[in-house]
TrEMBL record:
Keyword Signal part of the UniProt annotation: yes
Annotated source species: Cyprinus carpio
Keywords: Endosome, Glycoprotein, Leucine-rich repeat, Membrane, Receptor, Repeat, Signal, Transmembrane, Transmembrane helix
GO biological process: canonical NF-kappaB signal transduction; defense response to virus; positive regulation of interleukin-6 production; toll-like receptor signaling pathway
The keyword S-adenosyl-L-methionine belongs to this UniProt entry's keyword annotation: no
Coiled-coil segments on the chain, per record: none
A GO cellular component annotation in the UniProt record: plasma membrane
Any one GO molecular-function label of the UniProt entry: pattern recognition receptor activity
PROSITE patterns, per the entry: LRR (PS51450)
Subcellular location as annotated: Endosome; Membrane
Protein name: Toll-like receptor 7a
């Protein structure tokens, strides 16, 4: 790293006085990322009623997120970033958001990338269910293995739900969720985020350089796979991005989200012979991104159930067409 982090003694957080922001009544943007914070005092926000954007990413708030009360003081907050607040060498079962998140009535964008948890459950998103303005929920790079996708119907007004770069896989017969085998430890996650303004998602990098502090664009950037969000797909309407997971197999119970207009399934190394029954629940789907898979066109009926489809992207699916013989 061009500017290595030097922890405070005993890994102590940056000390910020409870009254630090008391007089900033017109403050609209507050960035507190990368400060080793373990606790968010409600006193910081007592007079910040105009705050529209709060960035708390890259701290140590894994436990704080489950019990914090500060959201109840931010009625006008539109964007909250809690990404990369994972606890080292810990793999909690679920997200377990504090119930105080239900007070964020103006929230439009919520990012919780890199919190790292095993299963996305109904109770995890319950505090978000009545946030009528919530448009984008970013849960990418969380190493999620099990996701009950049908619960996403409770988020009535979403425009984009991002579950990319996880470990979700297809359920076994008779199940209605996406699951994978159990694991206990993992390597530290390092990946990209996504920035969302006026319905458009743009690249947002968390670790390559510190965009809002030093702006150091190191000439020898660390290598990473660049997979920008598919804005063309999301422009069609309600979007679910489950790209770059472990989804190798689909069946008709895979999704029960008939309001979806855009589905991104790219980068899943999917080699199934599709027969026209897999997407029967998605009557309104207009854009399907099936790129970077291993499509096997054994059946001429593949994709025929998608009667509303406008764009089908099967780029870079040449695996079986270039195999020997």
């Amino acid at each position: 790293a061009p500017f290595p982090c030097v922890p405070c003694p005993n890994n102590a957080p940056l000390q910020i006085h409870p009254n630090s922001f008391k007089t900033l009544k017109n403050l609209k943007t507050l960035r507190l990322h990368s400060n080793s914070l373990t606790h968010i005092p409600s006193e910081w926000f007592q007079n910040l009623t105009q705050l529209g954007l709060l960035d708390l990413s890259s701290n140590f708030l894994a436990k704080e997120i489950t019990c914090t009360s500060f959201p109840s003081l931010l009625p006008n907050l539109e964007e909250l970033d809690l990404s990369f607040n994972y606890e080292l060498q810990v793999y909690p079962t679920s997200l377990n958001l504090s119930r105080s998140f239900r007070h964020l009535k103006s929230l439009k964008v919520l990012r919780i990338r890199g919190y790292v948890f095993q299963e996305l459950k109904q109770e995890d998103i319950q505090p978000l269910a009545k946030l009528n303005k919530l448009e984008l929920i970013d849960l990418g790079t969380n190493f999620i293995k099990i996701a009950h996708l049908s619960i996403l119907r409770n988020l009535k007004n979403f425009k984009i739900i991002n579950l990319s770069d996880n470990k979700i896989s297809m359920p076994s017969q008779g199940e209605t969720l996406l699951s994978n085998h159990r694991e206990s430890h993992y390597s530290s996650p390092m990946s990209q985020g996504a920035q969302y303004h006026n319905g458009e998602v743009k690249d947002m990098h968390y670790f390559l350089y510190d965009e809002y502090a030093r702006s150091c664009k190191y000439k020898d950037k660390e290598l990473w796979i660049s997979s920008p969000f598919n804005n063309e797909c999301s422009s069609f309407g309600k979007t679910l991005d489950i790209s770059r997971n472990n989804i190798f197999f689909l069946h008709s119970r895979f999704l029960d989200l008939d309001e979806l207009s855009c589905l991104n399934l790219s980068g899943n190394a999917m080699s199934q012979s599709l027969n026209g029954s897999e997407f029967v629940q998605l009557k309104n789907l207009q854009y399907l991104d099936f790129s970077d898979n291993r499509l096997d066109l054994m059946f001429s009926s593949a994709f025929q159930e998608l009667s509303s489809l406008v764009v089908l992207d099967i780029s870079r699916n040449s695996h079986y067409f270039v195999a020997e013989g």
